[in-house]
Automatic annotation (TrEMBL):
Pfam families with a match to the protein in the record: PRAI
Gene name in the database record: trpF
SUPFAM superfamilies in the cross-refs: Ribulose-phoshate binding barrel (SSF51366)
N-(5'phosphoribosyl) anthranilate isomerase (PRAI) domain ranges (all copies): 17-219
Pathway recorded for this protein: Amino-acid biosynthesis; L-tryptophan biosynthesis; L-tryptophan from chorismate: step 3/5
Reaction(s) the record says it catalyses: N-(5-phospho-beta-D-ribosyl)anthranilate = 1-(2-carboxyphenylamino)-1-deoxy-D-ribulose 5-phosphate
GO biological process terms, semicolon-separated: L-tryptophan biosynthetic process
GO molecular function, one term: phosphoribosylanthranilate isomerase activity
Protein's name in the database: N-(5'-phosphoribosyl)anthranilate isomerase
Lineage per the UniProt record: Bacteria, Pseudomonadati, Pseudomonadota, Alphaproteobacteria, Rhodobacterales
EC number, as in UniProt: 5.3.1.24
Amino acid sequence: MVTVAVNRGRPGGVRCKICGLKTPADVEAAAQAGAGYIGLVFFPRSPRHLDIAQARELALLAPVGLAKVALVVDADDATLQAITDAVPLDLLQLHGRESPDRVAEVKARFGLPVMKAVGVAEAADLAAIADYEAVADQILVDAKAPKGAALPGGNGLAFDWRLIAGRPWRRPWMLAGGLTPENVAEAVRLTGARQVDVSSGVESAPGVKDAARIAAFVAAAQG
């Protein structure tokens, strides 16, 4: 059994989610950096995809205070049941085309808080946020994937953060999309985000996390 220490970071600071972890070393790096969440990806087309046994191993390594998030894309009930039965989780992240009704259904059926991802490329895309705020526990505001993209997120793309600057929020929310150790402080300053999500921005290659970049990202986000 590997023991992972956690650095809880600065109290009241920005909470960071390190998404797409694949190894015990990734979990250790996120914990030691002071991340608030780790993301476990269940999407076979992603280079960050985990099978259920792999995800369970990583989730069991996460120390108290490091929330475990399962990222799924238009998953059916059987898939969600298999994941939630085996993997200790704190949050489900729905990152596909799930409707508000489907979000409510997943919450009721599986008894876990749900974070719904909303893709943004232009101001018109913000209209969907209100519909999901009515049913989701949290909103993840991500850059909209390009048409025909293989992945709904984790593409290293950002959107114009000014689109959400000053927006009133009914639910806790998290900023994603093209964030890196180099730009996350500016993103937080412009948007007022208290939670941020990163995947490709802390990698040395697709699906390969870099511990130094994880530490730098959390430090920059938390100021």
